[in-house]
Amino acid sequence: VIEPVLNSDVINPAYSSGDTAPALNISDMQDTSNATANLIWSRKTGADIYYVQVDPVVPGTGPSWKSNTIYETGPEVSLPSAQRITLAGILENYPDVVMKWTVYCRHSTDTSTAWYKGEENRFEVDAGPPSSP
Questions:
Q1: H helices of the chain, where?
Q2: What is the pTM of this model?
Q3: pLDDT > 90: percent of the chain
Q4: Where are the beta strands (DSSP E) in 79-127?
Q5: Which of 22, 51, 37, 39 is nearest to 118 (CA)?
């Protein structure tokens, strides 16, 4: 049985339903040597492939984006560098917009092609200069 990715499985940017959306600095996200400025979650037992859907909380205020399939490579899963940079490049034009993101997961050998939809997470686009270390 595969469980969906819950808010409690999200490592970065950490979000709990009802909380203020945490800031995600786009300059930091574009710096792939900064391992923590990315969408990161804990691997779910039974799942080995994922994708991420990102949309503005208020429709029409920001872009919608869907990642390519992400293959699980360890206890933590995150956007691969190329997808991370693509998303950051799109988001840099939407400062202060609150975005929602959801992780979908499944197992590559499942007979069903259905994806398990995770809980909605949020972040606010911080398009300012890189955050200090």
A1: 26-30, 81-91
A2: 0.92
A3: 80
A4: 98-106, 116-117, 121-126
A5: 51
Give mean pLDDT, residues 8-25. Answer: 93
Question: Would you state the structure tokens that stand for residue 109, as one six-digit string?
Answer: 């050998």
Partners of residue 25 on adjacent β-strands: 126
Give the three-class secondary structure for 90: helix
pLDDT score of 133: 57
pLDDT band at 130 (very low <50, low <70, confident <90, very high): low
Q: How far is the C-alpha of 118 from the C-alpha of 104, rounded, in Å?
A: 6
Q: How far apart are CA 102 and CA 117, in angstroms?
A: 7
CA angle 51, 101, 79 (to 5 degrees): 45
